[in-house]
Specification:
By secondary structure, this protein is an alpha+beta fold. It has four domains: 83 residues, no CATH class; 105 residues, Alpha-Beta Plaits, CATH 3.30.70; 46 residues; 148 residues, Histidine kinase-like ATPase, C-terminal domain (Heat Shock Protein 90). It has eleven helices and eleven strands. It is found in: Cell membrane.
Length: 478
Amino acid sequence: MTGTDSPAEEKPAKEQNQGLARSLFRVSLPRWRGSRYSLSRLFFNFYLLAMGSFVAIAFTADFVISTAQRGITDDYARRFMRGTITLIEDELFRHPRREWQRRIGEIDDKFSYSLGIVERISLDRTLTPAQVNKLDAGDIAIDHDGDIMYHRLGTSSQVLVVGPLASSRNPELTDRLPLELRLRLLTWSLIGVIFAIALWFWIRPVWRDLEALRQTARDLGDGHFDSRSPAARTQLFAPLSDTMNSMADRIRQLLATHRELSCGISHELRTPIARMRFALEMLTETDERAERERLWAMMEADLDELDQLIDTSLTYARFEREAPEPHFSSVKFAEWLTDEVDSVRLLGRQLAVTVDTTRLPDHLHIDLDRKAMPYALRNLLRNAFKYASKHISVNAEMVGEDIRINVDDDGIGIPPEEREHVFSAFTRLDRSRDRSTGGYGLGLAIARRVLELHGGTATADASPLGGARFTLTWKAHQ
């Protein structure tokens, strides 16, 4: 059968294709050929990034909220401490002013925070102008930096100092961590541990998917095109895994097509080239005009055959390499079908070619690609012209929402076991080995690619005329 080569001929082409693919992958994926992904490094990188970002956001939010609520907090602190400060002030006013320092020392021993008395003038550099105004107005001024409250004692020049209020600023409590700090440490420790556990259970499937994708890419880069990425454990990498598998299928298909075309075309080129070489040798050895004209005609026929082979091969390669985007348009189907058959009717020589559209609805319009669909129909007709004895019938019908075209001939037919195989490229049945029917085994392959472009299919079956029936089926309205 034409288009088949011996294993010895296929092996160099296969090795060449795999070598080209390996080179492409090594250029595009250099970092995937290194060591395995480190789970611990991946975990710690994610953990430090996420936890650091979380802590930064938490502290920033705390600072913003504290700043925004400072006025509310100050008002609450004043109302909370006003009673205590008033009681201390009343106690001091019961004694002469010279005893205030002694008395404040006695009271200080009964509080967990410091109490003291300073001169008003000494606070000008400590407090802000706004705080000084509050102090002079008889209100409580709060120094946030030192966490200290100031209150002027009546109309005197002395000021009561209460604080620092925070336990961390009191010397008597420095032997243990402040409660607030301990609570914060405990809270952040729990958050860190819980987050680490959650992140570990999330990062491990991600790491497995990354490692699987890395290994698959490495296998593909080494030319093992049967390798496929396993099903992703996380939805994050599921689309990437599917895309990589689709890419591997496409690469394998393209390499197979390349190998098939290379082997098939090289095989098909041998016969016309050999005939041309023989004709050229005969041409140099004869002086008879008639013989020279016959040899010239033979060479012209071989050149036409080579040109047709190249054109057909390029058409098949275009459909196989990358299916073009279909451009559907609505056509009046009965007229379109009749015109397409009439355009190739002359190739049928003395064959009777009939077109039957009586089973179609009146004024039926069908959606099709007016540039691609003629390839399919004409290739089926040319195939019928080769094998028909006397009669070829083309008929069309609607089956549900599909349009169907049947091309029947009264030739020798196709055995059931070969009816699917004939749509493979460079496939001709054994009875056509003598090349009396011509062709390269690409016409039916092109027809099927065109129908796949339309979302349909091309099939072969037995014909009511006794030969073969080829059927094109696709949706009538795209």
